[in-house]
Every structure is written in structure tokens, then in C-alpha cells.
């Protein structure tokens, strides 16, 4: 590996592999993952440890460890065929579009925590970043969801989650999305077959600019600095538009004329460009097309640096940081995986008639994941708490009290309501003890 980033690609034939990992610098294949094919917008990376692929014909997610020595495939069954797949940045949640609904699963437990419904036709693309989920569909809608609201409100109130923003500016199906950085202050770019790309502001909900092209747009992406917009067309051309062109206009018409200095065009593909991505340094652009080719471009010169041939139309091209298992084969993965539930968690909780508490904390270094009941008297947390409580009692009253309890690596599920109440009472007593001790020191 000569690069800090790797390129993941998939194509429709599946003759040689489902997903292939490429070295960006040399253009050579690093490792391949076999078994089936991947749907468009159906490839994701889970916690830099697993590769996830959605099948275009079956309600199944395929998972492989991103590891040179272990390419065994495991399957997870979904409620339906996944049309778009996204994984949150921290690797805690899997977000999948099935028909016109969005399903959110918790990775460590496999629980279905939320079902988002607002589209009335099939969802074609998903993006997730900084606690937001953006979806686009064949109904021409672009919708912004809050992940926190989706996880909390639906479980507590059992009511449909209200979207943060709903934009209906497009007149034909949405083909691709890009969600910028900044959470609620970020910007969203959408592309559509209606020959336009539209730039929205999440905070105000306003349509900032409309880019009108001469052909339908199949893919879109912004560079990391959000200075340029790249749009892949149905004719095979890629347009690079300067977002800081003056004078500022609410609607810009992008043509193929050479006189247009605000737009740069990359020509090389013979068929529609289905996927685009930009390297982290903003110097190179990767494009995938139905002409069975993936091309790597130099953004500033517009030259094609490398062409990677495939056996079929390219459906996914995704850049990600090189996972530890690809760089160092001796690394052992420790992210727990559970089968995805097909029943909404709130419904299953009512049927079981008990409360539950999930605790998942990431480990450090190469310590393996372990499961421990934190309510047992001989558990590591309880023993450490008792030891530190004795030290606090023996402290001089003039010294300040500091509770610094390290939490071990664990994945714990507490499913007994009585034990859960004991834990709450212990937490309340600990709080009152700390507050009273601090107040006594302050009075003295």
C-alpha cells in the first residue's frame, strides 16, 4: 500500500468479484471480495472493520472483514431489497432504504430502532453525516432527517418522525446526493434526471443555487473544501463547476461551450457516469461509468491519470481511509456484530414486557471485546467502584473529590427490570454522595 486511501468498486457482472479494493497510487488490486453483486449506492464501510454490500435482487446484506487474510462472507437478512445503503461515521448505525422507507439498525445489538416514512416512491440514494440523514427518491423529493430525533422520538412517543427539511424542487427522480460537513449548518447538493443540480442550505432550508445542464445528471459530489461541484452526466461527460464564480446568481446555466470559464469538462467516458468521489486532499477525482471503466482524474489539469477496466457497468466507486486490516494483516477486529432484527424494537419490547439497557464502549489498542454484567457484585466496575469509594472516605476533607472511574471494554445488555432499578438507585445515591461531599468542602 502506497496510499492512505483505498478505492472500493463494484460492477454488475460479478464474474471476478463483488467488491474490489484498489491502491489509488499504483492502480493495482489489493484484495477482492467474492459472492453476488452490489446494488447502486449499496456499498459501505462499517467502523473501518467490515465491508457491507446490499444485493440488488435479494433482501440480504453481505459483510466481509476488511482484512487481507480473512475474506469470509456473512449474510444478514433485511425486511426487503435494499435500494440504498449508508453507515454512520462512528459505525454505530446501519441506515438502509427499502422501497419508500428508511430503516435504522443499531450495530452492536442488531435492533431496528427507527423506521422513517415520508417518501411515496422508491428511495434511490442516502447520505449520512454529523447526525443527519439525507434521502432522495423517484418521487423527486430530497428529505433531511435528524438521526437523534429518529432514535428518540419514535421509541418514546410511537409517532412518525417529522423530517427536518423537505425539498420538492426537482421534477424528475433524484439520482445522487452529497451532504457537506457541519451538521445542521451544512449544505446539500442533489442531482436529477431533470438536467439540474440544486444546492440547499440545511439551516435555513433555502435553495441557494440551481445549476442547469444540457443533459440529465446521474451523479454529483463536492470537493472537501466545497469550492467545486462535480456532476456526472448521462452522456459520459463530467462537469466541474466553480461555486465561487462572480457575479453570484441563483440560477446558472452550464453549457459545453469552451468560452465558459467557470466550468471545466472531463471527457473520456462513453456512457453515463454513475458514481463520483474526490480524494481527501481535493487533488484527484474518481469516476465510474456504464462503459465498464473507472477513471482517476487530476482535477487541476483535467488529465486522466489512470483507467481501471471492469467486466460490467460500474455501480459503486467509494474512497475511504485504508483500514488497519488492509495495512497490517495481523490486526484483529473487535467490533461486535448481531443479526439485524426485522421487527421494530419498541414492538418487541412491549411483547417481552421488560426494560433493557444497552452499553457499548469502544476498546483501546488490541484488547478483545468482552461481555460482562455490570450489576454483579464481583464485576470489574463494581469492584473498582467499591475500592475508590473507600479511598474517597479516607481522604482529607480539604482535598477535592474527583470521581475518575475507567470503564472497561464491554457490550452489556441488562434485561431485568428489577436489576435496572437497582442500577438507577445506585447511580442516584452516588450522585447525592458526591454533591454532599463537595458542599461540605465548600462550607469549610
List low-pLDDT spans: 353-357, 368-375, 396-414
Side by side, the strands of the main sheet go 16-17-18-19-23
Query: How many beta-strand elements?
Result: 31
Helix content: 10-25%
Structural class, by secondary structure, is: mainly beta
Characterize the biggest β-sheet. Answer: 5 strands, mixed
Which quaternary structure do these chains form? single chain
Number of discrete helical segments: 5
Shape: globular
* Average pLDDT number: 83
Task: Give a description of the structure.
This protein has 444 residues and is mainly beta. It is 14% helix and 39% strand. The chain has helices at 147-157, 324-327, 345-352, 380-393, 417-443, and strands at residues 5-11, 19-23, 29-33, 43-46, 50-54, 60-65, 74-77, 82-87, 93-98, 101-106, 112-117, 123-129, 132-137, 142-146, 165-167, 174-179, 187-192, 196-201, 207-212, 217-222, 228-233, 238-242, 251-253, 263-266, 273-278, 284-289, 293-298, 304-309, 314-321, 357-361, 410-414. A hairpin with a 5-residue loop joins strand 27 (293-298) and strand 28 (304-309). The longest helix is centred in the last third of the chain and has 27 residues, at 417-443. The model is unreliable at 353-357, 368-375 and 396-414 (pLDDT under 50).
